[in-house]
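The methods section describes the discrete structure representation at length, but only in general terms. What matters is that the chain and its backbone geometry are given together, residue for residue. Nothing conveys this as quickly as seeing an actual entry. For illustration, here is how one protein appears when written out as sequence plus structure tokens:
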Amino acid sequence: MGSVNNLNPKMDQTVKIFDEFYEFAVDVDANEYDAVSSFFESVFTSKTAALNFTTVLFRIADQTQTPVLTLLDEIQGQDEIELNQTLAYYLNGLRSPTTLLGITEPVVPNYWTARNVLP
């Protein structure tokens, strides 16, 4: 009699992550996906936020060529605010400089330049 815990070697043990907005798709190991997803589900109260951050971490790992479990070890033990700061740091490396995340200080234009702008 078979057991539920026995893996079928003929089945693919990967998960496909895709994000249509950023045109990002990657196949990842199911065990890695479960580890990352369960970490984010323990940190965030919303399952949607946890799944979005899971996708973001795999995107960061893919773009930086860093193993996802190394990134996970780096962020474990952080609360939501520290986690947001760390992920904003990584995502700012992937984004255009005109759309940086986590920048709250308003940019003050030069007086003479601002003076020439019509309302």
Q: What stands out?
A: Strands lie at 14-19, 24-29. The CA atoms of residues 41 and 80 lie 12 Å apart.
